[in-house]
Amino acid sequence: MKPYIYITRKLPFEAIAAFREKYDVKMWEHDDIPVPKEILLAEAKKADALLTMVSDKVDEQVLNLAANLKIVANMAVGYDNIDLTAAAKKGVAITNTPDVLTDTTADLTFALLMAVSRRVVEAADFIKNGQWKSWSPFLLAGQDIHHKTLGIVGMGKIGEAVARRASGFEMNLLYHNRTRKPEIEQILGAVYCSFEDLLKKADFIVCLAPLTDETRNMFTRKVFQKMKRSAIFINASRGHVVDEQALYDALVAGEIAGAGLDVFQKEPIDAGHPLLGLSNVVALPHIGSASVETRTAMMNLAIANIEAVLDGKEPLTLVNKD
Length: 322
Ligand code: DGY
Hints:
The protein is an alpha/beta fold. It has 12 helices and 12 strands. α5 packs across α7.
């Protein structure tokens, strides 16, 4: 009997043709609706492997039911949607998709930074709504990016890629991270500093830190109040690193100048969410790694991880090494 693989979203049929020959593969039939929990539970019970998305909660309940499960291959670099302790207890390998999405996510992070500072979305809406009556000196004037100070919170691979982009804009680079990155300091002139210092000095604060117990809700009202009033905050990591009410209050009170958000506490965010009503907020639907090339590479890496584990080999990008 072929091993049974369950994929929690509809992936392009042709893209997984070879995979289907080798294994008994079933996919959730929608690409825009997450698999319901009861179906995930039922599938986890019989699957040898699950290919999951960032929107699936692979918790203790799912993992405890799994009788044959050998691997959960998450199609994301982040894996805060998976209970690693429960996976370890069951001896289930957890893999992610690092590296292949680094540059694409850094591009999008920088695009958000540019969109907020140069008011790109506001300006595009302005012209489409027929509001453009005349050229005027300060019409939709934003803030410069070049030669300003960028503060990166979370200097992982994506942080480094954002820093490389920023150096092309001749920005000054500050970063805060669990560990120092001497190489980045040397090559890009990035300066390591405390979180407090970064908040005080940076013109742009970009959060790329993974969601952990340490980073959950790290951006509180007090934190926003320590930033410059002209500061722009960008979040491309996870929604739960930010207290969204605090961010809203800080923006409305003019304690910071703007925000670019690719991630939210609740995804999808409600269209009526107060943050979406602010003109100085650019909000995107968690598309950091969403280029066709990169999403294809992520899918292929997840598949390669499943194949490795089912062939009794070491997966390429194992998360729970212990
Ligand atoms: C990731 O890879 O963790 C992204 O947030 C999902 O594309």
